[in-house]
Design a protein that fits this description.
Elements: H1 3-23, E1 29-37, E2 43-51, H2 55-67, H3 69-80, E3 89-94, H4 97-117
Parallel strand pairs: 2-3
Antiparallel strand pairs: 1-2
Helix pairs in contact: 1-3
């Protein structure tokens, strides 16, 4: 990854995180985990983590976020208009590491219960 793409990825990460924190309609815990930009700076891949209790609710919030991606891109364009000529299109992906960690914790709890019952 070139220095330019790294700088643009950091800019996308910071600005999209700010937009989601202040202007996203759902007040759930939506966090930008990371951002990657293609070499030609046309597409920004943004990794999102959504901290909610159910997988169904997480998917609904993610679908809403994807539905608002054009609005988020317009807000992003207003914020970075003096730093970039063209704003990359945004592609969100859902990070499921929190859910995987929760499942592992449940497995460890079950093992502890089984060992204490012996």
């Amino acid at each position: 990854m070139s220095v330019r793409t790294q700088r643009v990825a950091k800019l996308m990460h910071r600005e999209i995180a700010g937009i989601l924190a202040h202007e996203f309609p759902d007040k759930s815990m939506v966090t930008v985990i990371g951002a990657r930009v293609t070499r030609d700076l046309s597409i920004a891949h943004v990794d999102i983590s959504i901290l909610v209790d159910s997988a169904e609710e997480r998917q609904n919030i993610f679908d809403t976020l994807v539905g608002h991606s054009s609005t988020i891109r317009k807000l992003l364009a207003q914020r970075i208009r003096h730093q970039m000529r063209a704003v990359p299109s945004i592609r969100f992906s859902l990070d499921n590491s929190q859910e995987a960690a929760r499942k592992i914790d449940l497995l460890f709890d079950r093992i502890k219960e089984q060992q204490s019952n012996k």
